[in-house]
Design a protein that fits this description.
Elements: H1 5-9, H2 19-40, H3 43-48, H4 54-70, H5 78-97, H6 99-104, H7 111-132, H8 134-149, H9 164-173, H10 181-202, H11 205-217, H12 223-236, H13 242-260, H14 264-276, H15 287-296, H16 300-328, H17 342-348, H18 353-364, H19 366-369, H20 373-391, H21 400-408, H22 410-434, H23 436-447, H24 452-466, H25 472-482, H26 484-489, H27 494-507, H28 516-525, H29 529-539, H30 546-552, H31 562-584, H32 593-607, H33 616-649
Helix pairs in contact: 2-4, 2-10, 4-5, 4-22, 5-7, 7-8, 7-9, 7-22, 8-22, 10-15, 10-20, 10-21, 10-22, 11-12, 12-13, 12-14, 12-16, 13-14, 13-28, 14-28, 14-29, 15-16, 15-25, 15-27, 16-31, 18-20, 22-25, 24-25, 24-27, 25-27, 27-30, 28-29, 31-32, 32-33
């Protein structure tokens, strides 16, 4: 589902779809899945002894995705849509058929290559505008224009000279542009994982995770909000899309939080922050994580391992906030009738974790299983289909017809990421052919005065600005190409630099003025999106600090000894708890203004990495000592209040 259009789709019923469009859509989706799954499990070679270039498959899949986009019922010009779909299929099919000959003559700029590439570029731009909005398209056009302006710029801003024909052919046929690595990740990796998420969600998996969260957290104080936090995190295991997470989980948790005593604005903010964090949750993170593995040339398992502690810190921070907020306002258990028992939920849905366990095992021990990640996702989906058809969930089995519908709808669910992958390839292509990124790296370092903290702060701001109105994967490709190299240049590890820009690109989902996840949650809560967005920033305050931690502390990305990892994790968890208490105004008991300031100061001292500057280690110990003292003092205040309360109430 598109992160942009998902908000609009909640406002009213979907437009009616003609029979011809419905049939064409199903055929295109089926062909797309057959191509992807067949390639992933190597059917052409195994059954027919055939082999193709990966780029030929990508061209076919791009044509199918473009055709799906143009016949989409959201746009009420069917004739233009059918023409665009036919043109996409013909051009992409021709490129796939003639790919070897075209690439061999690419340096000669053949006329058919120039014209075909020009058509592909126009189709991709229009389909991307429909899918992800005009922001990404505008950025692509600006970067493309700079390719021709750059050669006339002075100093480090100067770029190589590129002719319009050369740029078009590079966009359309080169493996570093549209039909390149980013589209390959979107088609060959993201589509299989989207298929797994679709099947799991449509066969009771989403309800299973929601019931787990409800039965496990509903009876505690602030239970409704804790259901939202845990439910969003669990749903994030299978879906890395923030808005989809809001729509699946928030439709239940936001009204539940409002009934329990949270304001509607805060309920929307809590759900938005919780759903946004799903993009960090292994094993199925957001699509940006798969592309990160491709950029860094590491396994996806390595990215999952690096993301584990940041994800833990993210959700721990949110959990601390809702718990302390509930304690401050005396909000009790969730107001749920017939709350399911945890044992009953586990007994009824015992089979749902099995495919996920299989997937995690293939990621954790690749040398044992020797199964590519995309093939593991297909196998996990097959296991899930069999188990769900046999066992169902809570007395209900999915029918084969419903299962087929879930499988087919994967095409529409993965459509946006395929189109964004093609468009992002144009960004990478423009940077590669012109050399823009090299000059920009030097300029950013110069602007920051070669100061890492200033550069990180500048990068964070730019990432959030670029993320306004765009899906995280688009933001990540831009920031990874334009900003991450400058951070690496100052000595930061590539994994930390890329995780940093992805994290802040993700946070644009809850940062006004265009906070897509917050606006989606606000739409459910029926409150102004602007208010929900700023409340989400307050609720998720610590998430804006976490990226700075793992840039300067390798242990936060699991790149250190176990004692160092455990110590720094515990220290940062304490710092986040102390800071959250100061923000909320409650720890063990309500905090006065001076105490709140003391808690915040102690948290800052703890969260500053101990090796970031001379004397930082002593500041760290001072913060830890102060935190313990403040907690002890607040605990004594709480005991004193409990002892005096009966005397005050006595007649």
């Amino acid at each position: 589902m598109s992160e942009v259009h998902a908000i609009d789709e909640t406002a009213g019923p979907a437009p009616s779809v003609s029979r011809s469009v419905a049939v064409a859509t199903d055929i295109l989706q089926a062909l797309l899945l057959i191509c992807v799954v067949g390639w992933v499990i190597d059917l052409p070679r195994r059954l027919f002894g055939l082999s193709f270039y990966t780029e030929q498959l990508l061209a076919v899949c791009l044509g199918l995705a473009l055709a799906l986009s143009f016949i989409n019922a959201r746009y009420q010009r069917p004739v233009i849509g059918w023409i665009g779909a036919a043109l996409a299929l013909i051009i992409c099919g021709y490129i796939a058929y003639r790919y070897e000959d075209l690439t061999l003559s690419i340096a000669m700029l053949p006329t058919e290559g120039v014209i075909g590439s020009a058509i592909i570029v126009l189709l991709v731009l229009e389909a991307t505008r429909r899918s992800a909005g005009g922001v990404l398209v505008a950025i692509i056009l600006v970067i493309s224009a700079y390719v021709f302006i750059g050669p006339h710029m002075p100093g480090d801003f100067a770029t190589r000279t590129v002719s319009p024909e050369r740029l078009l052919v590079y966009y359309g046929l080169d493996t570093n542009a549209i039909i390149g690595s980013i589209l390959s990740v979107a088609v060959l990796i993201v589509v299989p994982f989207t298929l797994m998420g679709q099947v799991l969600g449509r066969t009771g998996g989403a309800a299973y995770f929601a019931d787990l969260a409800m039965s496990g957290m509903g009876s505690f104080r602030g239970g409704a909000a804790k259901i939202a936090v845990v439910g969003s995190g669990l749903f994030g295991l299978i879906s890395g899309a923030a808005v989809s997470n809001v729509m699946a989980v928030g439709i239940v948790t936001i009204p539940l939080m409002a009934r329990s005593g949270f304001t509607r604005t805060r309920a929307a903010a809590i759900e938005a922050v919780g759903s946004t964090g799903g993009q960090l949750m292994p094993p199925v993170m957001g699509a940006a994580a798969f592309i990160m593995a491709e950029f860094l040339q590491v396994s996806y398992g390595a990215v999952c391992i690096a993301a584990a502690i940041p994800a833990l810190l993210y959700y721990a921070a949110l959990f601390f906030h809702v718990d302390l907020e509930a304690a401050k306002h005396k909000i009790g258990a969730a107001q749920v009738e017939d709350m399911p028992r945890f044992s009953e939920v586990v007994k009824s849905g015992w089979h749902f974790p099995i495919p996920l366990i299989f997937l995690i095992a293939t990621l954790a021990w690749p040398e044992v299983f020797q199964i590519p990640i995309e093939r593991a996702a297909v196998y996990a989906t097959a296991i899930m289909i069999v188990l769900c058809l046999v066992f169902g969930y809570r007395g209900k089995r999915v029918t084969p017809r419903e299962m087929l519908r879930a499988i087919l709808d994967t095409g529409k669910a993965a459509l946006d990421i395929i189109l964004i992958g093609a468009a992002a390839g144009m960004v990478v292509g423009a940077l590669n052919i012109s050399g823009i990124s090299f000059g920009l790296t030097l300029q950013l370092i110069s602007l920051a005065g070669e100061n890492l903290f200033v550069l990180l702060l500048l990068t964070a701001i730019i990432s959030i600005i670029l993320g306004m109105g765009m899906p995280t994967v688009s933001v990540y490709v831009l920031t990874a190409s334009l900003l991450a190299p400058s951070i690496i240049k100052l000595g930061v590890s590539p994994m930390a630099a890329h995780m940093f820009v992805m994290y802040f690109g993700m946070l644009s989902m809850i940062t006004p003025p265009v906070a897509i996840a917050a606006y989606a949650a606000a739409n459910i809560a029926r409150v102004p999106g602007w208010n929900a967005g700023w409340t989400a920033v307050v609720v998720g305050w610590s998430t804006f600090f976490i990226p700075f931690l793992f840039v300067t502390e390798p242990s936060m990305l699991m790149n250190d000894t176990w004692p160092a990892i455990i110590w720094n994790l515990a220290r940062n968890l304490l710092g986040i708890f102390i800071g959250t208490a100061g923000i909320v105004g409650f720890a063990v008991a309500p905090l006065s203004t001076p105490l709140r300031l003391g808690f915040v100061a102690a948290a800052v001292a703890i969260l500053i990495p101990p090796h970031v500057f001379a004397g930082a280690q002593w500041l760290d110990w001072a913060g830890l000592t102060g935190a313990v003292a403040l907690l002890a003092f607040n605990w004594m205040q709480s005991r004193a209040q409990k002892q005096t309360a009966p005397q005050v109430a006595a007649p």
